[in-house]
Amino acid sequence: MASQKEARTPVDHVARLSGELRCQIPNEEEEREGGAAPEVATPGSEADGASADGLWKLPVEPAERRPECSRCSRPLKVCLCPFLPVHPLHISTNLYIIQHPAEESKVLRTVPLLAACLPQEKCKVKIGRRFSEERDPELTAVCQKSGTLILYPGAEATNLEEFIIDSPIYPSTIIIIDGTWSQAKDIFYKNSLFRVPKQVQLKTNISSQYVIRMQPTNNCLSTLECAAVALSILEKNNYIQEILLRPLQALCSFQLQHGAQIRLSKEHLLKSGLYPKPMPKNKRKLRKMELLMNSVKI
Ligand SMILES: [Zn+2]
């Protein structure tokens, strides 16, 4: 286990950092933006005593999703397109999002918003846990190009801003992993091709604006935020960050207006003594919590 790496980087940014704390976010129903919860055929007292024949007559829940906007992938009622740029942003960097399959089905996803702001050919989303030359020759070729970077914090990672100053080849592509902390780690370490590109990380003091999902530390950023910061550095244009964060701010503000609560980071809750759960018994987990509390950077 490379858990040391996790503990080492409490203030670093990884491709998606809602971490193992996802169980503490508002439940999925709460996140449906006031949409009706799916009706479950719950047999009442009559049905309890019904024969199997009677159960056949119970309504079957239709497996349908609420209609989604084709551009921002949000439910039509809460479409965020007014907060997206009219035309996709012009960028020269190629962005590859490696998305863990579990991320695709989350209600509050940031990657569709990111993709909606960028030209299709500049933002490619690859879904999966394992990638190889046979399965994805295109991605393999991208990883082997000298101008490709992968955003993943750790001892071997260079600060992106410093890297571009010294790099003889200006980066043309950046890969970001979209998943929880542990999913991102699994993808990074179990796919040898992701260790071919230069490993970089972001050193920035900005706090996540994705306040409706709990992040492990105050400085952990969502995938969209990571991409926004990385692209604005690579493109040398802060306007990119501003534009990309606009739909996220709108999403959070809408959710907060409709009953979602600000999810303070685990770091904040621990430091302020508000952490609602007992401290873990597992030594490794306890050590991680202590590191968060002290914000120790090893
Ligand atoms: Zn939309």
UniProtKB/TrEMBL annotation:
Enzyme class of the recorded protein, top EC level: transferase
Keyword NAD tagged: no
Matches recorded under Pfam families: DTW (PF03942)
Catalytic activity: a uridine in tRNA + S-adenosyl-L-methionine = a 3-[(3S)-3-amino-3-carboxypropyl]uridine in tRNA + S-methyl-5'-thioadenosine + H(+)
Source species, domain of life: Eukaryota
Coiled coil: none
Protein name: tRNA-uridine aminocarboxypropyltransferase
Native source organism of the sequence: Echinops telfairi
Gene that produces this protein: DTWD2
